[in-house]
Amino acid sequence: MFEWQKAGAAGFSPLKEVTMSQSVEPPILPEDSPDREVNCEVALEAAFAALVTASEAQGWTPQETAATLLKIATEHAYRVEAAAAPELPTSKDKAKSGVLAKNGNKARVEDITPKPKKR
Questions:
Q1: N or C: which end of the chain has fewer CB within 10 A?
Q2: Directed axis angle between helix 36-57 and helix 62-84, to 10°?
Q3: Residues 12, 49: contact at Cβ < 8 Å?
Q4: What is the full DSSP assignment across 40-93?
Q5: CA distance 106 to 49
Q6: Lowest mean pLDDT among 35-39, 40-44, 96-100
Q7: b/e map of 62-100 (b: 16 or more CB within 10 Å)?
Q8: CB distance 55 to 66 below 8 Å
């Protein structure tokens, strides 16, 4: 559970005036830190809480708000992953590198499928 969801969480009250100018704090941990994701969650909590509260204050139900935010976040994640994915090499690219030449000009799935990134 996020801090903003807890009843009586310090610094958050649904009765407070909502401003959409909630700032997002910069990261305090290096990119390779195992706690970086938690650091990001903490940095986004206040702005997220303000967005949820503003949405509901305008008459959207909690369910509508949650479903829409999930949809937007999911679509964003897909765009980020697509942008980070390497382009698949074409047959022309493979031929240039000699892969097709050594396989009798026949492409194999394993030759043209990118290997998963190790994390």
A1: C
A2: 140
A3: yes
A4: HHHHHHHHHHHHHHHHHHTT--HHHHHHHHHHHHHHHHHHHHHHHSPPPPPHHH
A5: 55
A6: 96-100
A7: eeebeeeeeeeeeeeeeeeeeeeeeeebeeeebeeeebb
A8: no
Task: Check whether 67 has a pLDDT greater than 70.
Answer: yes
Q: Which of 52, 40, 39 has the alpha carbon at shortest distance from 12?
A: 52
The C-alpha atoms of residue 100 and residue 89 are separated, in whole angstroms, by 12
Amino acid at 34: P
Residue type, 49: A
Query: Which of helix, strand or coil describes residue 37?
Result: helix
Distance separating alpha carbons of residues 21 and 18, to the nearest angstrom:
9
What's the average model confidence in pLDDT over 79-97? Answer: 75
Tokens of 64: 């509508």
Six token digits for residue 88: 């698949």
Neighbouring residues of 2: CB distance < 8 A, sequence distance ≥ 6: 41, 45, 48, 49
